[in-house]
């Protein structure tokens, strides 16, 4: 004896997440796409398509997912195109499923010993020492400082899974480059120059996805979420923050909303920002507060076809402060060999040495041998009292006081201690 089970004509599947969903009713041949959520009230864009005999596009609109009146109006709009479907059931199923998933967010996790066993400190870097996995990094600098070139350089290294210029990348990752400032043509030209400078095949670029942006990140968040999900994006570059915020950069609420939007993407991010007239980061202090890592990009003219760039660590939460990191960017403008190369250079050996912290500058000045407080003060153009104070702060850790009032670095370049010879 066999038993036949009736198939539920209104069973459905739902795929997606991060605020972008696709629902499919196979027995009804109906598909609905849901995106562009807003929270007050809870609304979303809903697009309904049919593969039924009189199908095609059925209806679309912004639906208040918790309003019976709105759901009834949308039901009638669908029924005008096809009255052979129980639209009330489908719409109620859609609203219930997406609201529950959208609201639940990430599941709560008890931090037991079993969970903590899986923690790996080696896996925390995406691009060491600039990008922490799943965390927001922000770089800021003057126009023309090379910060966008640095962002493109990072995107190429990540896409190829290669290390260069003092930046360590361990595996290829997919990068989404969101561009509010230039054009696809300009970004493509820069990318080709960087690839040639790295000795890579110019036209074998992979894993870098470009999107021209004109609205703020919050307005386009659903579309960005869709790209992140569909393309399996792991790193997002946002160039630049001012246009991406699409509001007053001094407003705490606007900046917090910007970082909350990035947080919803659940990816590693690199935000590129500008400086104000005082030479500090432009806008609300929440840019500093919400970034896990923040770097000040400074540059100085080199030759006619180069600039010296320095990256100065301004903020960290989970890692030690990094000493200034520098490069010389060399531009080859020959049409047949046009390239940009990043040549690693210690900041102390560039025109940006004066932007280093005073203890770092003292260490640099003592790298060739012991000096007196007076000599250091004259070389660094500081008062003797100021130099003495900095030396005392670092005494026995960074500096040692030798006989006859001279000072030396606590450790020689070869790792040995200067005071071993005393």
Textual characterization of the structure:
By secondary structure, the chain is of the alpha/beta class. It has 12 helices and 19 strands. The strands form 4 sheets. Strands 10-9-11-12-8-13-14-15-16 form a 9-stranded mixed β-sheet. Strands 1-2-3-4-5 form a 5-stranded antiparallel β-sheet. Strands 17-19-18 form a 3-stranded antiparallel β-sheet. The radius of gyration is 28 Å and the shape is elongated. The N terminus and C terminus are likely disordered.
Number of helices: 12
Shape: elongated
- Portion in beta strands: 25-35%
- Give the total of beta strands: 19
Given the helix and strand composition, which structural class is it? alpha/beta
Please mark out the parts with pLDDT under 50 across 5 or more consecutive residues, or reply none: 1-5, 413-422
Span between termini: 99 Å
Q: What does the average pLDDT come to?
A: 90
Q: How much is the radius of gyration in Å?
A: 28 Å
- Give the biggest beta sheet: 9 strands, mixed
Compact overview of the structure:
With 422 residues, the chain is an alpha/beta fold.
Topology:
Elements: E1 13-17, E2 20-25, E3 30-38, E4 43-50, E5 56-64, H1 68-81, H2 87-104, H3 113-116, E6 125-127, E7 131-132, E8 136-141, H4 147-160, E9 175-179, H5 184-197, E10 208-212, H6 221-231, E11 235-239, H7 241-245, H8 252-265, E12 268-274, H9 286-290, E13 293-301, E14 306-316, E15 325-332, E16 339-344, H10 358-365, E17 371-372, H11 373-380, H12 384-393, E18 399-401, E19 406-409
Parallel strand pairs: 8-12, 8-13, 9-10, 9-11, 11-12
Antiparallel strand pairs: 1-2, 2-3, 3-4, 4-5, 6-7, 13-14, 14-15, 15-16, 17-19, 18-19
Helix pairs in contact: 1-2, 4-5, 11-12
